[in-house]
Amino acid sequence: MTILPFVFGVLGLSIMGAIRSARNGKASPLAPRRYDESVLLEIRVPKANELLPLAAEQMFASLHGLLRADPEHQEHISFEIAADSSGIHFYVWCPKHLQEFVEGQIYAQYPSAELKPVEHDYMQADLSGLATCGGSLVLSKDSFFPTKTFRDFEVDPLAAVTGSMSEVEEGERIWLQILVRPVPDVWQAAGHKYVQEVKSGVKKMSLGLSDIASGVAEELGSFIPHAVKQFTNPASVAAPAKPSPPPKQEFPRLSPGQELELKMIEDKLTRVGFETVVRIFTAALDPENCRELLRGTGASFRQFSSASLNSFTQIAATEGIAEFKEKVVKREFPANSYVMDTAELASIFHLPNISVQTPAIAWATYKKGEPPANLPTSDCTYFAQTTFRERFVKFGIKRADRRQHMYLVGKTGTGKTTVFKNMIVQDMQNGEGVAVLDPHGDLVKELLDFVPAERVNDVVYFDPSDTERPIGLNLLELQDTSQKNLLASGLLDAFKKHFIDISWGPRLEYLLNNAILTLLEVPGTTLLGITRLLSDKNYQKYIVYKLKDPVLKEFWEKEYTMMMSNPRLHTEAIAPIQNKVGRFLASSTIRNIVGQRTSSLDLDAIMNEGKILLINLSKGKIGEDNANLLGSLMISRINFSAMQRVNIPETERRDFYLYADEFQNFASGSFASILSEARKYRLNLHLTHQYTAQLPESMRDAVFGNVGTMVLFSVGAPDAQILEKEFLPYFTAEDLISLDKYHIYLKLLVDGMTSKPFSAISLAPPEGRTYQGQAAVAHSRDVCGRDAVEVEEKIRRWSERAFSLGMAIAEEKGEAVIEPVPDGQEKPAAVPSPQEDEEA
After folding, report:
1. Global model pTM greater than 0.85
2. What does DSSP assign to residue 203?
3. 38 - beta bridge partners?
4. Which of 304, 255, 258 is nearest to 278 (CA)?
5. How do residues 234-260 score in pLDDT, each as one tens digit?
6. Locate the DUF8128 domain: which residues (predicted)?
7. Using CB atoms within 10 A of its CB, is residue 156 exposed (0-12), middle (13-18) or buried (19+)?
8. C-alpha radius of gyration, the chain, whole number
């Protein structure tokens, strides 16, 4: 008899366990499962993310598709929030074979999310010397009783959770782990039974486990005495009486509050469920701080409590903290768990949105965009790789699309030059014709070491600071005088751009234009003749006599002669030209280049034969003004050479690639026409600069309207407001500002059509140096450079020569030229004509 109470006690507990298990709607507990191969992904979304927890609810609903028919092989997933001194981070852990599926469901609901595999699990951090605490959050009632969800809150409940985790100090850590695995739709049965029994009056509204326990005790109270009596004296137990007909059942009246609660239970039962485990682990230098972090994080879940339905209860780790930590680190799913539906899970874990203002959240620094389906990945010039959803695909731009030009803009040091470097190196390796204008000099110097050995003789290295072997560039050299207006227009625009410190007016433009046109008609003249033509009467008569254009001839013989008769008017008219042009030509470095009557730099041949022209316009060596003006004149002359291809069939015009760094320094007023016309002549422009305010509005509009490919690096706020229009609705001004170094947004021309904007990262600097730079420079100096002493001597003789009308007449007749001499001096012998002097 003494053993009977023990037997009955065990029997009672077994019955209670069976009832509880049935009410939870769970199958037999699964043994903890570990995975040999798993992956931890950090999830980040842009700070401007506007997606509500509803997106997470749909994500969990999709993840329920992982449900297996065999529960022994059912995988689980861990959603985690971790806080330390680096910020608050969001993670998802899953078996490796589920990675693609899990990523797909997250991306489906959070298209702008950034998922990146974590190489080193943050839970593997060394916590030696720190106090550690841990515990779990369990439901206070059966699983079919719902907790509050995000639909019951006016503000995002995630803010309270992350807010409690934001106070960590250096060395402290908080790990929130939510393990989930889908369960079949059998767990709802207990809930449906409960609702039916309450409505029918069989039982009252449950207030929790105590109600269940009292109900079981009541059942046992009537069952145990009868069982004891039957066990001790079977004969004494009378046969059961014949049951009487049940009385007519009257359903109880439920209060509005009770009806609402039943409705909330029924609402939960309509959704799929996940077995869930919530763990919290904290670490801190001080044990009390560690416990406080644990209490605070657990307390943030009280917001989901409903007094008459369900709530979270925090319980401390029953095992040792070391064992608890091991389970957390290994993401072990325990045997005891509870069921939460998709709305409840979405309430306790979803990705933050713009309404969550908790500091230190690790946001995605910028939004990433999907590349076009026809992205060029072969037969192109490579310069970047995609970044969308961590899929890095190397891509470039096709030859035909490069003919509509490429424009790069972004802050200094963001990677624009690296893009240029990669493209130029490929052009050189592919035997293409290339010209590079570098206002700093570093780029062209580095490019020299990438020149293929077989192309050393193709290189023309134009360095104005090379005072020993200056290259000759006569900007007035013209083979076909019918093109003089075209060339003059370009030169005039170049000068106009750099007359920034004087008032540019119609008279100045008219005077300078006529001076340039005049010198273009006379072979052998150079820019040195501009200032002399305006101030030296004898030189003017010499030049005017050689003119064939009657309009120009009349200008000098009548208008200009009349102007000279008024010294004040004449001085005012020519002073700006003398000042600006004279200052440019006063530099011996510049003078020795543009003062040579015959160019050694043949731009037509460079373009048509596919040579490599590297122009070092280092401002530190020749001065900023000189570098900018010389660069403008070079672009003008290159464009002029391109337009001379009009006589070459279009199919035979060779592509020539012009790269201009900080191009706003060289872009004159005619640049808009260059952008629109250059494509026809296969002059393909690649332009870069730092911010849009460097461009006049008209030029900016011309660039935006004519370039086929636009590449944007990180920019400042003013530029972001302007450029945002080019990238909406895919990227906002905030995205443009937030770009990391080397990261880009771009609109890529593909097969003649501009793609929608997408994100990428520029390729790393090129490798494979050939170290042929010295050989290339030496060859260029030998072929194109001229001895500085000889050049200076010829310029000196020209500047000292006393030109006259008689000299022009004598040259026309082929007679020897006798220079005039002052009275009292001995008459000199005949001297060579300017043409003869050059040949000498």
Report:
1. no
2. S
3. 95
4. 304
5. 555 445 555 555 555 566 777 888 888
6. 34-363
7. buried
8. 43
